[in-house]
Amino acid sequence: MSFRLKAISREDHLTFVRARAAVSHMQVPSWGDVKPDWRAESLGWFDESDRLVGVGLVLMRPLPKLKRYLAYVPEGPVIDWAAPDLERWLDPMLAYVKGRGAFSVKMGPPVVARRWSAEAVKAAIADPRARRLRDVEATTHEPGAFDLADRLRRLGWQQTEPAGEDGFAAGQPRYVFQVPFAGRSLEEVQRGLNQQWRRNIKKAEKAGVKVVRGGYEDLSAFYEIYVETAERDRFVPRPLSYFQRMWTALRAEDADRMRLYLARHEGEVLAAATMLTVGEHVWYSYGASTGRKREVQPNNAIQWRMMSDAHALGAGVYDFRGITDTLEESNHLLGLLRFKVGSGGEAVEYLGEWDFPLNKVLHKALDLYMSRR
C-alpha cells in the first residue's frame, strides 16, 4: 500500500527537516523563494497512522505557451531511499505532479554510490591513462546504491548522464568533493590538509589577509569579482539579484542558512564566497576571486576560515560541491579539482539525476531543446 501524499505547510516541512542530521539546501522551503521562475510546493508523505514520514520540495516550471510543467525535485525528495518497496514512495509523487499538469519529473536521489580518497584522486590525475574519474577504481563502494539504481530503472526511471566533457549535468553535480568532519577535531582536519594548503594559509596570515563575514551590503563586492571569475573560468554568471534573493530568502528561514565571507588585503577584496548550512551539512556554495595579488593566497585563507566556522557549527561534512569528472590536463577545471583535493577530503559520486517521462512526446521535445542550448 502506497503512502498518502499531499501538500504540506512550510512550517511542517521545516520541522521535519530540522529533525534530520542532513538534508540538501535545495530541499528546504526557502529554496523555492530563490527560484521565482518555478512554482514551488512542499510535499509530505504520510503513513497509515497519519504520521509525516517524508518531505520534498518540488519545483514546477511551465513549458512556453503550454500549461504543462517540468516537475523538479533537486537533490531529493527526503524519503527512505533504502526502502525495498520504493514504489510506495515514488508512485504517489508521480500521480500528484501529473495531476498538477507535469509532463516529466526530474529528481536527484541524495544517495552516494562511490568515494575516492584524496590520494586516489591525486594518483588518477598523475596517471596519463586515466581520462575520467568514473573509470578509476573507487576507494569505497556504498552498499545498496547500485541496487537502488537497478530498482529505479525497473520502475521506469531514466538516468541522466552528465552532459559535456567536464562531467557536470544540466542540473546538479553528480561528482562533488567533501571533507568529513564527524568525529574529527579541527586540529585533525588541519593535519589532513596537504603541505601546500598549510603553507598557503600561513603565507596569507603573514601577508595580512583578513577574512571577515559580510552582510547584504557586501554582496555587490562579492559580485564584482564573481563576474571576473566567470569570465576567467568560462561560465555564465548569475545576476546580482539572484544572490540578493538567496540572502533574503534563506536567512529569513534561518539566520545561519547562508553566510558571506570576504578575504581582504590592504582594504581590497581579493576573494569572496558564500556558505550554506542545513543541519550538519555545510556547503561552499559560490566562490569568486580576482587575478590580483594571488601571491598572498586569499583562496586558501577564505576556505580555512569557512571550514573552521563550519566545524564550530557542528558540521559533519564540509562540501566543496561540484568537481570535474575529466582528468585530462587540457580540461580548464582540473586546477579547481587539484585545489579541492588539497583539502584532504574525498571525491564523492552520487547516483545522479533521474527522469520519469509522464508524456513521452513532450519529454523528448524538452530533451531536444536542452541538447541544443
Automatic annotation (TrEMBL):
Spell out the Pfam families in the cross-references: FemAB
Q: Which Gene3D superfamilies match?
A: 3.40.630.30
Please state which protein family the record places this protein in. Answer: Belongs to the FemABX family.
**Listed name of the protein:** Aminoacyltransferase
Q: Which InterPro entries does the record cross-reference, listed alphabetically?
A: Acyl_CoA_acyltransferase (IPR016181), FEMABX (IPR003447), PG_Glycine_Bridge_Synth (IPR050644)
| Organism this protein belongs to | Streptomyces yunnanensis
Alphabetical keyword list:
Acyltransferase, Cell shape, Cell wall biogenesis/degradation, Peptidoglycan synthesis, Transferase
Q: Which domain of life is it from?
A: Bacteria
